[in-house]
Amino acid sequence: MNTQTLIPLGIDIAKKTFDCALMLGAKFKNKSFPNNPAGVTACVAWIELHAKGTVHVCMEATGIYWEALALHLVAAGHRVSVINPALAKAHAQSLGLRSKTDAIDARVLADFCREKQPPPWVAPSPSEQRLKALVLRLQGLVAMRAEEKNRLESAREAVRDSLMAHLRWLGEEIKRLEADIKQTLDDDPDLREKRDLLDSIPGLGERTLSILLAYGLGQERFRTARQFTAFAGLSVREHESGSSVRSKPRLSKVGHAALRAALYMPAMVALYKTTWGKCYRERLAGRGKPAKLIIGAMMRKLIHVAFGVLRSGQPFNPSLHCA
Fold first, then answer.
1. Which of 28, 128, 142, 204 could be stapled to 124 by a disulfide with Cβ–Cβ 3.0 to 4.6 Å?
2. By the 8 A CB rule, do 82 and 70 touch?
3. Cβ atoms within 10 Å of 227's Cβ, excluding its own
């Protein structure tokens, strides 16, 4: 597709509404729609009415509120890019804007789209969409169970039965979701093959590999392991200026917190329970790296190893990681 002929369209997404800013030359045409099926249909019709050609839509990855609209726009033949909200914020700051409204945010996204030409978003398959929905629900219930267990420790007698009943229900529902996730992976040949390849990596459990696949590892939109690392917020952020400012490198954390959290325990298991992970830990420790930094490095390493296994189509080879 020739990106020079595309018309920039910024869409600021919220739970109940979304604001559109169509860039027509030096002017904008703005419109707000309800974030529901009727609003999505109306938006597609509005674009066809005012845009004499294919649009390049730019929106932020805000929860799951953008997904239905993105799928409809792709189906309508438009190019859609979904960007990290931090990029939109930085672009707004570079423009020197002093105000912030939904309409202004939509214009910022349209201008970002025109200037940066971000890569297109690739719509996941129905099986991948189902997997992500199940994984997100499972993560929510696991977190809820941890909260209820904490409440139980100091709960009064009057509410203990209620808490115990809820914990039993959570346990049963978590088992049901885990079975649904396994079945979803088994039923899709592509996902099943990816699951089996990831399962060859010591340290990655069944829940973690399903999370990695649900968040898009192995999909076309991540062309390099570094892109997925940034998506997870695991890139290293350095802060240096002149000869006096030399801050310690830190994780950027500009990405999915749930994805980072899902990689923490696998990194610990790999570092202390697997041969290849122990080799990696000893090598970094020998260079004087502190334990916390080594854990973050292993979280990134797991992504790179998983990406390499999926890209090559070959199971994990320990000889490549413990020389």
1. 128
2. yes
3. 16
Q: Which residues contact 18 (CB under 8 A, 6 or more apart)?
A: 11, 12, 32, 33, 35, 39, 43, 65, 66, 69
DSSP string for residues in 111-136? HHHHHH-PPPPPPPPHHHHHHHHHHH
d(CA 214, CA 216): 5
33 sits in the region (left: phi over 0; alpha: psi -120 to 50; else beta) called beta
Are 231 and 222 contacting, i.e. CB atoms less than 8 angstroms apart? yes
Q: Over the stretch 65-115, which tens digit does the pLDDT of each residue have?
A: 888 899 999 988 999 999 888 889 899 999 998 888 999 999 999 999 999
First-to-final CA distance of the chain: 45
Alpha-carbon torsion 155, 160, 163, 168, what sign? positive
> 129-158: buried (b, 16+ CB within 10 Å) or exposed (e) per residue?
ebbbebbbebbebeeebeebeeeeeeeeee
Say if residues 102 and 8 touch (Cβ distance below 8 Å).
Answer: no
Write phi, then psi, for 76 (nearest 5 degrees): -80, -5
pLDDT tens digits, residue range 131-169? 999 999 999 999 999 999 999 999 999 999 999 999 999
Q: Alpha-carbon Rg of the chain, whole angstroms?
A: 23
At residue 52, the pLDDT reads 83
Hey, is 203 helix, strand or coil? coil
What is the pLDDT averaged over residues 227-246?
67
Q: Which structure tokens are listed for 95?
A: 């423009």
